[in-house]
Amino acid sequence: MSKIEQIAKDLVMPILEKNNFELVDVEYKKEGSHWYLRVYIDKEGGITLDDCQLVSEYLSDRLDEVDPIEHSYILEVSSPGLDRPLKKPRDFERNIGKEIEISLYTPIDKRKKFEGELIEFTGDKIIILYNGERKEFDMKNVSLVKPVIKF
């Protein structure tokens, strides 16, 4: 986490805690000629537009007071979306029993992607039901995990 991301995280936590929101992620990056500070939040039942506005206004005021960013940037506060990557233990716990897609750094059985039902997460390992059998993946070899969205 960069210094700017850490400052934004520290500044936004009071409003999140007050409203029982979860901080999913903070990212500060340049896209094209613009810098973006993005804050992704969530809560039980899902985040609303009003929730995002509340957090955005609060964080904008705090950032103006501290002024940690020397150049212009765009502040965005949003929900992480349905297909957000699973990163924290809580993300995995919420998705037990659901279909996930796992991408690997190093292939297993000549494959780098697996899809199956998440049946267990231990912190070090992800265990899915893949083609009717338990399959374990070491987190050190996992590059990305995200839910499978079916409509």
Q: Can you walk through the features of this model?
A:
This protein is an alpha+beta fold and 151 residues long. The protein folds into 2 domains: 76 residues, GMP Synthetase, Chain A, domain 3; 59 residues, Ribosome maturation factor RimP, C-terminal domain (SH3 type barrels, Roll). The protein is 26% helix and 42% strand. It is built from 3 helices and 8 strands, in the order H-E-E-H-E-H-E-E-E-E-E. A 5-stranded antiparallel β-sheet has the order 7-6-5-4-8. A hairpin with a 2-residue loop joins strand 1 and strand 2. Helix 1 packs across helix 2. The longest helix has 18 residues. The radius of gyration is 18 Å and the shape is elongated. The mean pLDDT is 95.
Brief overview, please?
The chain is an alpha+beta fold and 151 residues long. The protein is 26% helix and 42% strand.
Instruction: Give the distance, in angstroms, between the N- and C-terminal Cα atoms.
Output: 34 Å
The CATH topology of the largest domain is given as: GMP Synthetase, Chain A, domain 3
- Percent of residues in helical segments? 25-40%
How many domains would you count in the coordinates? Answer: 2
Alpha carbon gyration radius: 18 Å
Overall pLDDT confidence: 95
- What's the total helix number? 3
**Largest β sheet strand count, sense and barrel closure:** 5 strands, antiparallel
Subcellular location: Cytoplasm
Organism: Thermoanaerobacter sp. (strain X514)
Function: Required for maturation of 30S ribosomal subunits.
Protein name: Ribosome maturation factor RimP
